[in-house]
Amino acid sequence: MEAIAMNVDQIRFDFPLLSQKVNGKNLVYLDNGATTQKPKIVVDAIANYYKEYNSNIHRGVHTLSQMATNEFEQAREVIQKFIGAAKKEEVIITSGTTEGINLVASAWGRANVKAGDEIVISAMEHHSNIVPWQMICEEREAVLKVIPMDENGELILNQLDEFINLKTKLVAVSHVSNSLGTVNDIERIIDRAHSLGALVLIDGAQSVSHGPISVVDLDADFYVFSGHKLFGPTGIGVLYGKETILNDMPPYKGGGDMIKSVSFEKTTFNEIPHKFEAGTPNIAGGIGLAKAIEYIQQIGFDFIQEQEEKLKIAATGMLNSIEGVRIIGQAAKKESVISFTIDGLHPFDVGTILDQLGIAVRTGHHCTQPVMDFFGIPGTIRASFAFYNNMEDIEALRKGIIKAKSMLEI
Amino acid sequence: MTIEEIENEIISEFSMFGDWMEKYEYIIELGNDMPVIDSTYQTEENLIPGCQSRVWLHAEQKEGKIIFTANSDAIITKGIISLLIRVLSFQNPEDILSADLRFVKEIGLTDHLSPTRSNGLVSMVKQMKNFAFAFSNV
Ligand SMILES: Cc1ncc(COP(=O)(O)O)c(C=O)c1O
Asked: Which of A275, A304, B70, B100 is 20 to 30 A from B60, alpha carbon to alpha carbon?
Protein backbone atom coordinates (compact mmCIF):
# COMPACT_ATOMS: atom_id res chain seq x y z
CA MET A 1 0.00 0.00 0.00
CA GLU A 2 1.26 3.46 -0.73
CA ALA A 3 2.08 5.75 2.16
CA ILE A 4 -0.81 7.81 3.43
CA ALA A 5 -0.21 11.51 3.88
CA MET A 6 -0.78 12.59 7.49
CA ASN A 7 -2.78 15.59 6.65
CA VAL A 8 -6.50 15.87 7.15
CA ASP A 9 -7.11 17.53 3.77
CA GLN A 10 -5.38 14.59 2.11
CA ILE A 11 -7.03 12.01 4.34
CA ARG A 12 -10.47 13.33 3.41
CA PHE A 13 -9.83 12.30 -0.19
CA ASP A 14 -9.58 8.69 1.00
CA PHE A 15 -13.28 8.85 1.92
CA PRO A 16 -15.38 9.33 -1.22
CA LEU A 17 -18.56 10.03 0.71
CA LEU A 18 -17.14 13.09 2.44
CA SER A 19 -17.33 15.08 -0.78
CA GLN A 20 -21.07 14.42 -1.17
CA LYS A 21 -23.58 17.24 -1.30
CA VAL A 22 -26.56 16.94 1.02
CA ASN A 23 -29.59 19.17 0.50
CA GLY A 24 -27.43 21.12 -1.90
CA LYS A 25 -24.76 21.83 0.74
CA ASN A 26 -21.33 20.33 1.35
CA LEU A 27 -21.76 17.44 3.74
CA VAL A 28 -20.59 18.05 7.29
CA TYR A 29 -20.54 14.57 8.78
CA LEU A 30 -20.65 14.64 12.57
CA ASP A 31 -22.43 11.37 13.24
CA ASN A 32 -19.42 9.09 13.58
CA GLY A 33 -20.75 7.62 16.81
CA ALA A 34 -23.61 6.09 14.85
CA THR A 35 -21.43 4.89 12.00
CA THR A 36 -18.21 5.99 10.38
CA GLN A 37 -17.54 6.59 6.69
CA LYS A 38 -15.50 4.06 4.73
CA PRO A 39 -12.18 4.65 3.00
CA LYS A 40 -12.14 3.80 -0.70
CA ILE A 41 -9.78 0.86 -0.15
CA VAL A 42 -12.43 -0.79 2.03
CA VAL A 43 -15.12 -0.30 -0.62
CA ASP A 44 -12.71 -1.64 -3.25
CA ALA A 45 -11.75 -4.69 -1.19
CA ILE A 46 -15.42 -5.64 -0.86
CA ALA A 47 -16.06 -5.08 -4.57
CA ASN A 48 -12.97 -7.13 -5.47
CA TYR A 49 -14.11 -10.03 -3.38
CA TYR A 50 -17.42 -10.14 -5.22
CA LYS A 51 -15.85 -9.50 -8.61
CA GLU A 52 -12.87 -11.83 -8.35
CA TYR A 53 -13.15 -14.60 -5.78
CA ASN A 54 -16.65 -14.77 -4.30
CA SER A 55 -17.04 -18.30 -2.90
CA ASN A 56 -18.19 -19.93 0.27
CA ILE A 57 -15.51 -20.55 2.87
CA HIS A 58 -14.35 -23.50 4.93
CA ARG A 59 -16.12 -25.99 2.70
CA GLY A 60 -14.93 -26.09 -0.88
CA VAL A 61 -11.83 -27.71 -2.32
CA HIS A 62 -11.90 -25.43 -5.31
CA THR A 63 -9.46 -22.58 -5.79
CA LEU A 64 -11.80 -19.67 -5.26
CA SER A 65 -13.13 -21.16 -2.06
CA GLN A 66 -9.54 -21.53 -0.85
CA MET A 67 -8.82 -17.92 -1.71
CA ALA A 68 -11.90 -16.66 0.08
CA THR A 69 -11.15 -18.86 3.11
CA ASN A 70 -7.57 -17.57 3.25
CA GLU A 71 -8.68 -13.94 3.08
CA PHE A 72 -11.32 -14.44 5.73
CA GLU A 73 -8.95 -16.23 8.09
CA GLN A 74 -6.29 -13.61 7.46
CA ALA A 75 -8.85 -11.01 8.43
CA ARG A 76 -9.22 -12.83 11.73
CA GLU A 77 -5.47 -12.50 12.29
CA VAL A 78 -5.51 -8.82 11.43
CA ILE A 79 -8.26 -8.34 14.03
CA GLN A 80 -6.39 -10.46 16.56
CA LYS A 81 -3.26 -8.32 16.29
CA PHE A 82 -5.31 -5.11 16.31
CA ILE A 83 -6.89 -5.90 19.67
CA GLY A 84 -3.84 -7.63 21.09
CA ALA A 85 -5.47 -11.03 21.56
CA ALA A 86 -3.20 -13.98 22.34
CA LYS A 87 -4.71 -16.32 19.74
CA LYS A 88 -6.73 -15.93 16.59
CA GLU A 89 -9.17 -18.59 17.79
CA GLU A 90 -10.25 -16.12 20.45
CA VAL A 91 -11.65 -13.84 17.76
CA ILE A 92 -15.27 -14.75 16.98
CA ILE A 93 -16.73 -13.05 13.93
CA THR A 94 -20.23 -11.73 14.64
CA SER A 95 -22.61 -9.36 12.91
CA GLY A 96 -21.83 -6.58 15.38
CA THR A 97 -21.69 -5.47 18.99
CA THR A 98 -25.32 -6.36 19.57
CA GLU A 99 -24.84 -9.93 18.44
CA GLY A 100 -21.66 -10.31 20.48
CA ILE A 101 -23.42 -9.26 23.68
CA ASN A 102 -26.41 -11.46 22.94
CA LEU A 103 -24.11 -14.39 22.26
CA VAL A 104 -22.43 -14.06 25.64
CA ALA A 105 -25.65 -13.33 27.53
CA SER A 106 -27.30 -16.31 25.94
CA ALA A 107 -24.59 -18.99 25.60
CA TRP A 108 -22.47 -18.10 28.63
CA GLY A 109 -25.46 -16.89 30.63
CA ARG A 110 -27.52 -20.04 30.19
CA ALA A 111 -24.62 -22.20 31.31
CA ASN A 112 -23.53 -20.06 34.25
CA VAL A 113 -26.24 -17.82 35.67
CA LYS A 114 -28.41 -19.29 38.42
CA ALA A 115 -31.23 -17.96 40.57
CA GLY A 116 -29.96 -15.29 42.97
CA ASP A 117 -26.80 -14.58 40.99
CA GLU A 118 -26.06 -10.99 40.04
CA ILE A 119 -25.11 -9.36 36.74
CA VAL A 120 -23.79 -5.82 36.91
CA ILE A 121 -24.09 -3.15 34.22
CA SER A 122 -23.71 0.63 34.39
CA ALA A 123 -26.09 3.58 34.25
CA MET A 124 -24.78 4.68 30.86
CA GLU A 125 -25.13 1.49 28.83
CA HIS A 126 -26.51 1.35 25.30
CA HIS A 127 -29.81 -0.57 25.15
CA SER A 128 -27.93 -3.44 23.54
CA ASN A 129 -25.87 -3.82 26.72
CA ILE A 130 -28.98 -3.68 28.91
CA VAL A 131 -31.71 -5.74 27.30
CA PRO A 132 -29.82 -9.04 26.72
CA TRP A 133 -28.86 -9.04 30.42
CA GLN A 134 -32.40 -8.25 31.50
CA MET A 135 -33.57 -11.18 29.41
CA ILE A 136 -31.16 -13.71 30.91
CA CYS A 137 -31.74 -12.35 34.43
CA GLU A 138 -35.47 -12.73 34.02
CA GLU A 139 -35.10 -16.23 32.64
CA ARG A 140 -32.78 -17.30 35.46
CA GLU A 141 -34.31 -15.25 38.28
CA ALA A 142 -31.00 -13.50 38.64
CA VAL A 143 -30.61 -9.85 39.68
CA LEU A 144 -29.45 -7.01 37.45
CA LYS A 145 -27.52 -4.30 39.29
CA VAL A 146 -26.62 -0.91 37.90
CA ILE A 147 -23.48 1.06 38.79
CA PRO A 148 -24.75 4.66 39.12
CA MET A 149 -23.29 7.81 37.60
CA ASP A 150 -23.02 11.43 38.68
CA GLU A 151 -24.06 14.75 37.12
CA ASN A 152 -20.84 14.92 35.11
CA GLY A 153 -21.65 11.62 33.47
CA GLU A 154 -18.94 9.70 35.33
CA LEU A 155 -19.54 6.34 36.93
CA ILE A 156 -19.51 6.47 40.72
CA LEU A 157 -16.83 3.91 41.49
CA ASN A 158 -16.12 4.60 45.15
CA GLN A 159 -19.05 2.35 46.10
CA LEU A 160 -18.02 -0.34 43.66
CA ASP A 161 -17.75 -2.91 46.46
CA GLU A 162 -21.48 -2.63 47.00
CA PHE A 163 -22.27 -3.39 43.41
CA ILE A 164 -19.66 -5.99 42.60
CA ASN A 165 -19.73 -8.60 45.33
CA LEU A 166 -19.50 -12.34 45.80
CA LYS A 167 -22.86 -12.89 44.10
CA THR A 168 -21.67 -11.13 40.95
CA LYS A 169 -21.23 -13.47 38.01
CA LEU A 170 -20.45 -10.97 35.28
CA VAL A 171 -19.97 -7.24 34.84
CA ALA A 172 -20.87 -5.73 31.44
CA VAL A 173 -19.80 -2.11 30.90
CA SER A 174 -19.03 0.16 28.02
CA HIS A 175 -15.49 1.36 27.54
CA VAL A 176 -16.75 4.67 26.13
CA SER A 177 -20.31 5.97 26.45
CA ASN A 178 -22.03 6.64 23.13
CA SER A 179 -24.30 9.36 24.50
CA LEU A 180 -21.89 11.14 26.88
CA GLY A 181 -18.44 10.39 25.50
CA THR A 182 -17.20 9.35 28.96
CA VAL A 183 -14.18 7.04 29.03
CA ASN A 184 -14.86 4.64 31.87
CA ASP A 185 -12.20 3.40 34.26
CA ILE A 186 -12.64 -0.18 33.12
CA GLU A 187 -9.27 -1.26 34.58
CA ARG A 188 -10.61 -0.60 38.05
CA ILE A 189 -13.87 -2.41 37.31
CA ILE A 190 -12.03 -5.41 35.87
CA ASP A 191 -9.72 -5.55 38.92
CA ARG A 192 -12.59 -5.51 41.33
CA ALA A 193 -14.59 -8.13 39.38
CA HIS A 194 -11.63 -10.48 39.00
CA SER A 195 -10.75 -10.22 42.67
CA LEU A 196 -14.14 -11.82 43.33
CA GLY A 197 -14.05 -14.32 40.50
CA ALA A 198 -16.57 -12.50 38.29
CA LEU A 199 -16.08 -12.12 34.54
CA VAL A 200 -16.11 -8.83 32.64
CA LEU A 201 -17.52 -8.00 29.22
CA ILE A 202 -16.40 -4.69 27.74
CA ASP A 203 -18.62 -3.02 25.14
CA GLY A 204 -15.96 -1.49 22.93
CA ALA A 205 -18.34 -0.18 20.25
CA GLN A 206 -17.32 3.44 20.91
CA SER A 207 -13.70 2.90 21.88
CA VAL A 208 -12.00 0.85 19.16
CA SER A 209 -11.95 3.72 16.67
CA HIS A 210 -10.40 6.18 19.13
CA GLY A 211 -7.37 4.45 20.56
CA PRO A 212 -5.28 1.28 20.74
CA ILE A 213 -6.70 -1.68 22.65
CA SER A 214 -4.95 -4.63 24.19
CA VAL A 215 -7.40 -7.16 25.52
CA VAL A 216 -4.54 -9.05 27.14
CA ASP A 217 -3.24 -6.00 29.01
CA LEU A 218 -6.77 -5.08 30.03
CA ASP A 219 -7.38 -8.67 31.05
CA ALA A 220 -10.95 -8.40 29.71
CA ASP A 221 -12.78 -11.71 29.52
CA PHE A 222 -14.95 -10.55 26.62
CA TYR A 223 -14.56 -7.53 24.38
CA VAL A 224 -17.13 -6.70 21.68
CA PHE A 225 -17.28 -4.14 18.89
CA SER A 226 -18.82 -3.39 15.48
CA GLY A 227 -16.94 -3.05 12.19
CA HIS A 228 -19.09 -0.18 10.95
CA LYS A 229 -17.99 2.17 13.72
CA LEU A 230 -14.39 1.38 12.82
CA PHE A 231 -14.48 2.56 9.18
CA GLY A 232 -15.45 -0.95 8.06
CA PRO A 233 -18.69 -2.32 6.63
CA THR A 234 -21.99 -2.90 8.43
CA GLY A 235 -23.11 -6.37 9.45
CA ILE A 236 -19.72 -7.42 10.76
CA GLY A 237 -18.34 -7.33 14.27
CA VAL A 238 -16.12 -9.06 16.75
CA LEU A 239 -16.50 -10.91 19.97
CA TYR A 240 -13.19 -11.49 21.68
CA GLY A 241 -13.27 -14.07 24.46
CA LYS A 242 -10.57 -15.79 26.48
CA GLU A 243 -9.86 -19.23 25.08
CA THR A 244 -10.63 -21.20 28.24
CA ILE A 245 -13.94 -19.40 28.74
CA LEU A 246 -14.99 -19.85 25.12
CA ASN A 247 -14.10 -23.54 25.23
CA ASP A 248 -16.33 -24.05 28.23
CA MET A 249 -19.27 -22.22 26.69
CA PRO A 250 -22.03 -24.08 24.86
CA PRO A 251 -22.72 -22.97 21.27
CA TYR A 252 -25.11 -20.11 20.58
CA LYS A 253 -26.66 -20.90 17.22
CA GLY A 254 -26.85 -24.29 15.54
CA GLY A 255 -26.08 -24.86 11.89
CA GLY A 256 -23.37 -25.46 9.35
CA ASP A 257 -19.69 -24.83 10.14
CA MET A 258 -20.17 -25.07 13.91
CA ILE A 259 -20.27 -28.88 14.02
CA LYS A 260 -17.75 -31.69 13.89
CA SER A 261 -20.26 -34.41 13.08
CA VAL A 262 -24.02 -34.56 12.95
CA SER A 263 -26.28 -37.55 13.28
CA PHE A 264 -29.86 -37.56 14.42
CA GLU A 265 -28.71 -39.09 17.69
CA LYS A 266 -25.82 -36.82 18.54
CA THR A 267 -23.96 -33.85 17.20
CA THR A 268 -20.45 -32.97 18.28
CA PHE A 269 -19.39 -29.37 18.07
CA ASN A 270 -16.48 -27.85 16.27
CA GLU A 271 -13.58 -26.09 18.01
CA ILE A 272 -13.52 -22.36 18.64
CA PRO A 273 -13.90 -20.01 16.85
CA HIS A 274 -16.09 -22.04 14.46
CA LYS A 275 -18.24 -23.38 17.27
CA PHE A 276 -19.75 -19.88 17.50
CA GLU A 277 -19.92 -19.13 13.81
CA ALA A 278 -22.85 -21.18 12.53
CA GLY A 279 -23.84 -20.60 8.93
CA THR A 280 -22.14 -18.70 6.14
CA PRO A 281 -20.60 -15.59 7.67
CA ASN A 282 -20.39 -12.11 6.21
CA ILE A 283 -17.29 -12.94 4.17
CA ALA A 284 -17.08 -9.63 2.37
CA GLY A 285 -17.62 -7.87 5.68
CA GLY A 286 -14.72 -9.65 7.31
CA ILE A 287 -12.43 -8.83 4.42
CA GLY A 288 -13.59 -5.21 4.44
CA LEU A 289 -13.07 -4.89 8.18
CA ALA A 290 -9.51 -6.18 7.93
CA LYS A 291 -8.83 -3.55 5.25
CA ALA A 292 -10.28 -0.84 7.48
CA ILE A 293 -8.02 -1.93 10.32
CA GLU A 294 -4.98 -1.90 8.05
CA TYR A 295 -5.95 1.59 6.95
CA ILE A 296 -6.23 2.82 10.54
CA GLN A 297 -2.89 1.25 11.38
CA GLN A 298 -1.32 3.19 8.53
CA ILE A 299 -2.82 6.44 9.74
CA GLY A 300 -1.78 5.49 13.26
CA PHE A 301 -3.48 6.13 16.57
CA ASP A 302 -0.94 8.83 17.45
CA PHE A 303 -2.27 10.95 14.65
CA ILE A 304 -5.89 9.97 15.26
CA GLN A 305 -5.77 10.81 18.95
CA GLU A 306 -3.99 14.10 18.39
CA GLN A 307 -6.50 15.16 15.75
CA GLU A 308 -9.55 14.07 17.76
CA GLU A 309 -8.29 15.79 20.88
CA LYS A 310 -7.94 19.04 18.91
CA LEU A 311 -11.45 18.65 17.52
CA LYS A 312 -12.92 17.86 20.93
CA ILE A 313 -11.35 20.88 22.58
CA ALA A 314 -12.34 23.22 19.76
CA ALA A 315 -15.90 21.91 19.58
CA THR A 316 -16.35 22.06 23.34
CA GLY A 317 -15.11 25.65 23.39
CA MET A 318 -17.34 26.59 20.47
CA LEU A 319 -20.43 25.07 22.11
CA ASN A 320 -19.71 26.72 25.45
CA SER A 321 -19.50 30.08 23.70
CA ILE A 322 -23.11 29.89 22.47
CA GLU A 323 -25.76 31.13 24.86
CA GLY A 324 -28.20 28.48 26.01
CA VAL A 325 -26.08 25.52 24.95
CA ARG A 326 -25.54 22.97 27.69
CA ILE A 327 -23.08 20.13 27.22
CA ILE A 328 -24.43 16.88 28.68
CA GLY A 329 -21.53 14.79 29.92
CA GLN A 330 -18.65 16.70 31.51
CA ALA A 331 -16.42 13.79 32.41
CA ALA A 332 -12.74 14.51 32.92
CA LYS A 333 -11.86 11.81 30.40
CA LYS A 334 -13.92 11.97 27.22
CA GLU A 335 -13.62 10.90 23.63
CA SER A 336 -14.64 13.23 20.78
CA VAL A 337 -18.34 12.55 21.34
CA ILE A 338 -20.22 15.65 22.49
CA SER A 339 -23.87 15.65 23.50
CA PHE A 340 -25.65 18.93 24.12
CA THR A 341 -29.01 20.58 24.50
CA ILE A 342 -30.11 24.12 23.70
CA ASP A 343 -32.38 25.81 26.24
CA GLY A 344 -35.98 25.91 25.08
CA LEU A 345 -35.37 23.98 21.89
CA HIS A 346 -36.22 20.38 21.09
CA PRO A 347 -33.26 18.34 19.75
CA PHE A 348 -35.38 17.07 16.86
CA ASP A 349 -36.08 20.62 15.66
CA VAL A 350 -32.42 21.58 15.85
CA GLY A 351 -31.40 18.38 14.04
CA THR A 352 -33.93 19.08 11.29
CA ILE A 353 -32.57 22.57 10.65
CA LEU A 354 -28.96 21.33 10.75
CA ASP A 355 -29.90 18.64 8.23
CA GLN A 356 -31.21 21.31 5.85
CA LEU A 357 -27.74 22.85 6.10
CA GLY A 358 -26.04 19.56 5.19
CA ILE A 359 -24.89 18.91 8.77
CA ALA A 360 -25.38 15.34 9.95
CA VAL A 361 -25.73 15.00 13.72
CA ARG A 362 -27.66 12.51 15.77
CA THR A 363 -30.62 13.65 17.83
CA GLY A 364 -32.72 11.76 20.34
CA HIS A 365 -31.92 9.40 23.17
CA HIS A 366 -29.14 7.52 21.30
CA CYS A 367 -30.49 4.18 22.52
CA THR A 368 -29.65 5.22 26.07
CA GLN A 369 -33.04 6.20 27.47
CA PRO A 370 -31.95 5.70 31.09
CA VAL A 371 -29.22 8.31 30.56
CA MET A 372 -31.78 10.83 29.26
CA ASP A 373 -34.08 10.06 32.19
CA PHE A 374 -31.17 10.64 34.56
CA PHE A 375 -30.60 14.12 33.14
CA GLY A 376 -34.35 14.76 32.84
CA ILE A 377 -34.24 15.57 29.12
CA PRO A 378 -36.03 14.04 26.12
CA GLY A 379 -32.79 13.69 24.23
CA THR A 380 -29.70 15.52 23.08
CA ILE A 381 -28.03 16.68 19.92
CA ARG A 382 -24.81 14.70 19.51
CA ALA A 383 -21.83 15.71 17.45
CA SER A 384 -19.31 12.87 17.24
CA PHE A 385 -16.01 13.39 15.49
CA ALA A 386 -13.57 11.21 13.59
CA PHE A 387 -10.00 12.03 12.55
CA TYR A 388 -11.24 13.12 9.10
CA ASN A 389 -13.27 15.97 10.54
CA ASN A 390 -11.74 19.42 10.49
CA MET A 391 -12.09 22.91 11.91
CA GLU A 392 -14.38 23.89 9.02
CA ASP A 393 -16.83 21.25 10.23
CA ILE A 394 -16.86 22.85 13.68
CA GLU A 395 -17.37 26.30 12.19
CA ALA A 396 -20.23 24.95 10.07
CA LEU A 397 -21.81 23.47 13.18
CA ARG A 398 -21.47 26.79 14.99
CA LYS A 399 -23.17 28.66 12.17
CA GLY A 400 -25.84 25.96 11.96
CA ILE A 401 -26.65 26.21 15.64
CA ILE A 402 -26.89 30.01 15.44
CA LYS A 403 -29.23 29.68 12.45
CA ALA A 404 -31.36 27.02 14.19
CA LYS A 405 -31.61 29.22 17.27
CA SER A 406 -32.67 32.24 15.26
CA MET A 407 -35.32 30.25 13.43
CA LEU A 408 -36.66 28.30 16.38
CA GLU A 409 -36.49 30.70 19.29
CA ILE A 410 -39.77 32.51 19.80
CA MET B 1 -63.97 22.86 1.96
CA THR B 2 -63.18 19.37 0.75
CA ILE B 3 -59.93 17.66 1.59
CA GLU B 4 -58.79 18.17 -1.97
CA GLU B 5 -59.55 21.90 -1.90
CA ILE B 6 -57.62 22.38 1.32
CA GLU B 7 -54.68 20.40 -0.04
CA ASN B 8 -54.61 22.60 -3.13
CA GLU B 9 -54.69 25.69 -0.95
CA ILE B 10 -51.69 24.48 1.05
CA ILE B 11 -49.79 23.55 -2.12
CA SER B 12 -50.28 27.03 -3.50
CA GLU B 13 -49.19 28.65 -0.23
CA PHE B 14 -46.00 26.61 -0.21
CA SER B 15 -45.29 27.34 -3.87
CA MET B 16 -44.52 30.93 -2.88
CA PHE B 17 -41.52 30.05 -0.78
CA GLY B 18 -38.19 30.65 -2.43
CA ASP B 19 -36.00 28.39 -0.30
CA TRP B 20 -36.03 25.85 2.49
CA MET B 21 -35.68 28.53 5.13
CA GLU B 22 -38.87 30.33 4.23
CA LYS B 23 -40.66 27.01 4.17
CA TYR B 24 -39.40 25.94 7.59
CA GLU B 25 -39.99 29.38 9.06
CA TYR B 26 -43.61 29.03 8.01
CA ILE B 27 -43.87 25.52 9.47
CA ILE B 28 -42.36 26.78 12.72
CA GLU B 29 -44.87 29.65 12.75
CA LEU B 30 -47.71 27.17 12.23
CA GLY B 31 -46.36 25.09 15.09
CA ASN B 32 -46.21 28.10 17.40
CA ASP B 33 -49.73 29.22 16.44
CA MET B 34 -51.40 25.85 16.70
CA PRO B 35 -54.18 25.87 19.32
CA VAL B 36 -53.04 23.92 22.32
CA ILE B 37 -54.71 20.61 22.95
CA ASP B 38 -57.06 20.48 25.92
CA SER B 39 -54.71 19.34 28.68
CA THR B 40 -57.13 16.64 29.76
CA TYR B 41 -56.45 14.97 26.42
CA GLN B 42 -52.67 15.14 26.65
CA THR B 43 -52.50 11.76 28.33
CA GLU B 44 -50.38 8.64 28.14
CA GLU B 45 -53.30 7.01 26.41
CA ASN B 46 -53.30 9.57 23.59
CA LEU B 47 -49.53 9.53 23.23
CA ILE B 48 -48.12 8.29 19.96
CA PRO B 49 -44.56 7.35 20.71
CA GLY B 50 -41.82 8.27 18.29
CA CYS B 51 -38.14 7.88 18.78
CA GLN B 52 -37.43 11.54 18.03
CA SER B 53 -40.47 13.51 19.08
CA ARG B 54 -43.70 12.72 20.84
CA VAL B 55 -47.19 13.36 19.52
CA TRP B 56 -50.51 13.43 21.35
CA LEU B 57 -53.69 13.01 19.31
CA HIS B 58 -57.33 13.31 20.34
CA ALA B 59 -60.40 12.79 18.16
CA GLU B 60 -64.10 13.36 18.65
CA GLN B 61 -67.13 13.30 16.44
CA LYS B 62 -69.59 16.17 15.99
CA GLU B 63 -72.48 16.03 13.57
CA GLY B 64 -70.84 13.32 11.52
CA LYS B 65 -67.51 15.13 11.23
CA ILE B 66 -64.35 14.18 13.04
CA ILE B 67 -62.47 16.84 14.95
CA PHE B 68 -58.82 16.27 15.69
CA THR B 69 -56.69 18.09 18.22
CA ALA B 70 -53.04 17.30 18.80
CA ASN B 71 -49.76 18.42 20.24
CA SER B 72 -46.08 17.60 20.05
CA ASP B 73 -42.99 18.43 22.06
CA ALA B 74 -41.09 19.41 18.89
CA ILE B 75 -42.14 22.56 17.08
CA ILE B 76 -41.45 21.41 13.52
CA THR B 77 -43.44 18.25 14.17
CA LYS B 78 -46.19 20.48 15.56
CA GLY B 79 -46.17 22.65 12.44
CA ILE B 80 -46.63 19.63 10.22
CA ILE B 81 -49.36 18.32 12.52
CA SER B 82 -51.20 21.57 12.12
CA LEU B 83 -51.21 21.06 8.33
CA LEU B 84 -52.51 17.51 8.73
CA ILE B 85 -55.25 18.73 11.03
CA ARG B 86 -56.18 21.55 8.68
CA VAL B 87 -56.68 18.94 5.95
CA LEU B 88 -58.34 16.14 7.89
CA SER B 89 -60.26 17.78 10.74
CA PHE B 90 -63.96 18.57 10.27
CA GLN B 91 -64.23 15.96 7.52
CA ASN B 92 -66.38 12.84 7.13
CA PRO B 93 -64.83 9.54 8.21
CA GLU B 94 -65.15 8.17 4.65
CA ASP B 95 -63.25 11.13 3.16
CA ILE B 96 -60.54 10.85 5.80
CA LEU B 97 -60.14 7.15 5.07
CA SER B 98 -59.72 7.72 1.36
CA ALA B 99 -57.40 10.77 1.64
CA ASP B 100 -54.01 10.10 0.07
CA LEU B 101 -52.43 13.29 1.46
CA ARG B 102 -50.84 14.14 -1.86
CA PHE B 103 -49.93 17.62 -0.57
CA VAL B 104 -47.20 16.21 1.66
CA LYS B 105 -45.21 15.17 -1.37
CA GLU B 106 -46.06 18.33 -3.33
CA ILE B 107 -44.70 20.64 -0.64
CA GLY B 108 -41.57 18.53 -0.19
CA LEU B 109 -42.21 17.11 3.25
CA THR B 110 -42.29 13.44 2.30
CA ASP B 111 -39.19 12.87 4.38
CA HIS B 112 -41.01 13.90 7.50
CA LEU B 113 -43.73 11.36 6.86
CA SER B 114 -41.46 8.48 6.02
CA PRO B 115 -41.38 5.58 8.47
CA THR B 116 -37.65 6.08 8.99
CA ARG B 117 -38.09 9.49 10.58
CA SER B 118 -39.55 8.04 13.74
CA ASN B 119 -40.97 11.43 14.69
CA GLY B 120 -44.40 10.00 15.39
CA LEU B 121 -46.01 11.54 12.29
CA VAL B 122 -46.45 8.33 10.33
CA SER B 123 -48.08 6.69 13.31
CA MET B 124 -50.17 9.81 13.76
CA VAL B 125 -51.63 9.63 10.25
CA LYS B 126 -52.31 5.95 10.77
CA GLN B 127 -54.02 6.76 14.05
CA MET B 128 -56.15 9.49 12.40
CA LYS B 129 -57.34 6.91 9.89
CA ASN B 130 -57.99 4.40 12.67
CA PHE B 131 -60.21 6.95 14.37
CA ALA B 132 -62.02 7.60 11.10
CA PHE B 133 -62.52 3.88 10.64
CA ALA B 134 -63.81 3.47 14.17
CA PHE B 135 -66.21 6.42 13.85
CA SER B 136 -67.48 5.26 10.46
CA ASN B 137 -68.66 2.06 12.11
CA VAL B 138 -70.68 3.54 14.93
C1 LIG C 1 -21.83 1.76 23.19
C2 LIG C 1 -22.57 1.01 22.13
N3 LIG C 1 -22.88 -0.27 22.34
C4 LIG C 1 -23.53 -0.99 21.41
C5 LIG C 1 -23.92 -0.46 20.20
C6 LIG C 1 -24.65 -1.32 19.22
O7 LIG C 1 -23.88 -1.52 18.10
P8 LIG C 1 -24.45 -2.26 16.81
O9 LIG C 1 -25.78 -1.61 16.51
O10 LIG C 1 -23.44 -2.03 15.76
O11 LIG C 1 -24.63 -3.71 17.16
C12 LIG C 1 -23.63 0.88 19.95
C13 LIG C 1 -24.07 1.51 18.68
O14 LIG C 1 -24.65 2.56 18.64
C15 LIG C 1 -22.94 1.63 20.93
O16 LIG C 1 -22.63 2.91 20.73
From this structure: B100
- Asked if B76 and A348 come within 8 Å (Cβ–Cβ), the reply is yes
Best residue in A22, A352, A355 for a mutation probing chain B (most B CBs within 10 Å):
A352
Residues A64 and A24 in one domain: no
Tell me the pairing of strands A168-174 and A118-122: parallel
For ligand 1, which residues put their CB under 6 angstroms from it?
A: A 96-98, 126, 128-129, 174, 178, 203, 205-206, 226, 367
Contact A356 B21 (CB under 8 A): yes
Percent above pLDDT 90 for chain A:
91
A378 vs B: CB within 8 A: yes
Across the range A208-232, mean pLDDT stands at 98
| Distance from C-alpha of A179 to C-alpha of A24, rounded to nearest angstrom | 29
Mean pLDDT of chain A: 95
Topology given in CATH for the domain delimited by B3-135: Sufe protein. Chain: A (3.90.1010)
ipTM of the complex: 0.91
Same domain assignment for residues A106 and A255: yes
Is A318 found in the same domain as A370?
A: yes
| Residue A159: half-sphere exposure toward Cβ, Cα within 13 Å | 11
Say how far apart CA A256 and CA A68 lie, in whole Å: 17
Q: What is the structure's pLDDT at B117?
A: 65
Please state the atom number of ligand 1 nearest to the C-alpha of residue A229: 10
Q: Which of B16, B21, B51, B138 is catalytic?
A: B51
CA distance linking residue A122 with residue A146, whole number of Å: 5
Domain span holding position A379: 8-30+300-408
Specify the pairing of strand A168-174 against strand A199-203. parallel
Total structural domains within chain A: 2
Phi, psi of B35 (to 5 degrees): -60, 140
pTM assigned to the model: 0.94
Q: Which of A346, A379, A410 is facing B32, going by the closest CB pair?
A: A410
pLDDT in tens, A273-288: 999 999 999 999 999 9
Given a cut of 70, is residue B138 above it in pLDDT? no
